[in-house]
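PROTEIN DESIGN WORKSHEET
SECTION A - STRUCTURE
LENGTH: 362
TOKENS:
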């Protein structure tokens, strides 16, 4: 599989330079291409993105308004998606002293990729003014712009810095979330749910207060609330369990919990099976997860919870489960050899665990 950084390869830059040369007769196509691809192989994904924006700053007009005009002219001919983040990154680098122009530019550029990282630069330098614009974006006709309002103001956006002001006072973004709680676009709803899930990590009581006030009879709102509560439910938070009528006092027995092998090699799959039997005289609404405890480079274990199933277990009922888990390195996880654990978790409560060894062949 080709590394993600190869989105910014030499073919990409040839096309990129051609587009800007067509948009601005004074643009030094050959000079830009030579400089932007120098030492290209040494740069990782986000380094390539940032270096591209810096090189644009060098080769576009020094007047920011004129530079934006060239970007706007070039934008429709560029590839959409992650590489289009170069455009809002340029705005974040050079547009902080031109607030209104930059806000209009980010509103447009987010429709080509996303401006979620760029807008945070403005939240960092002028939080109140930027948030006011984002509240207006939350009711915009374009779903990309509405999504930017939520995603850009997340307290803990991955690959970006935390918004300490929102972590301290999550009510600052409530108007945005309220505007989007019934949004008909899944792309937007996912962002709202992730925003709320971020809030739950620091202010769970506040987050639950917000969603308890929403009408979950609306299917879009119900989806958001359910997805937003995933971290709290996995932790067995009693208040979040109550929101969805999950059993707080779980009475189930874990039996015949077995792994398919005591050890596996990196790249292999491990299958585990188990039974759950009700020990309660009334039905129990359960969320059943499994937890993999991975060793870090230090040897300390870190855990990741995986969703397995939601079920209503009737009195005396027994259910059997079988799950295959593949252990291979990914961009988001590097595996280390040694002891691993798999635990079975029901409504946030660990019922049992089994150990196995992961071998990494040199």
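SECTION B - SEQUENCE
RESIDUE ASSIGNMENT:
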């Amino acid at each position: 599989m080709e590394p993600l950084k190869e989105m910014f390869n030499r073919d990409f830059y040839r096309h990129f330079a051609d587009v800007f040369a067509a948009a601005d007769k004074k643009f030094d196509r050959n000079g830009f291409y030579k400089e932007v691809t120098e030492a290209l192989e040494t740069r990782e994904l986000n380094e390539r993105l940032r270096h591209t924006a810096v090189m644009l700053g060098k080769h576009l007009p020094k007047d920011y308004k004129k530079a934006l005009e060239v970007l706007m002219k070039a934008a429709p001919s560029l590839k959409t998606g992650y590489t289009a983040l170069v455009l809002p990154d340029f705005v974040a680098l050079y547009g902080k002293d031109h607030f209104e122009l930059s806000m209009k530019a980010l509103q447009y550029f987010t429709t080509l990729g996303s401006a979620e990282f760029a807008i945070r630069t403005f939240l960092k330098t002028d939080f109140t003014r930027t948030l006011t614009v984002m509240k207006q974006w939350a009711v915009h006709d374009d779903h990309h712009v509405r999504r930017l309002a939520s995603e850009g103001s997340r307290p803990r956006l991955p690959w970006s810095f935390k918004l300490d002001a929102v972590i301290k006072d999550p009510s600052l973004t409530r108007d945005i979330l309220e505007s989007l709680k019934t949004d008909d676009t899944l792309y937007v709803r996912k962002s709202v749910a992730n925003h709320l899930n971020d809030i739950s990590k620091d202010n769970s009581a506040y987050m639950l207060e917000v969603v308890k006030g929403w009408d979950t009879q609306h299917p879009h709102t119900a989806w958001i609330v359910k997805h937003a509560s995933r971290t709290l439910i996995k932790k067995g938070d009693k208040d979040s369990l109550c929101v969805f009528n999950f059993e707080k006092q779980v009475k189930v027995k874990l039996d015949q919990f077995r792994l398919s092998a005591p050890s596996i090699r990196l790249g292999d799959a491990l299958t585990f099976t188990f039974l759950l039997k009700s020990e309660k005289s009334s039905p129990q609404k359960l969320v059943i997860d499994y937890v993999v405890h991975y060793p870090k480079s230090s040897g300390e274990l870190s855990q990741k919870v995986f969703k397995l199933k939601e079920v209503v277990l009737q009195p005396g009922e027994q259910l059997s489960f079988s799950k295959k888990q593949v252990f291979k390195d990914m961009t988001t996880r590097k595996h280390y050899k040694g002891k691993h654990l798999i635990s079975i978790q029901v409504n946030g409560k660990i019922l049992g665990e089994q150990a196995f060894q992961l071998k990494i062949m040199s």
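SECTION C - NOTES
The mean pLDDT is 95.
The beta strands are 252-259, 263-265, 269-278, 284-295, 301-313, 318-326, 338-346, 349-359.
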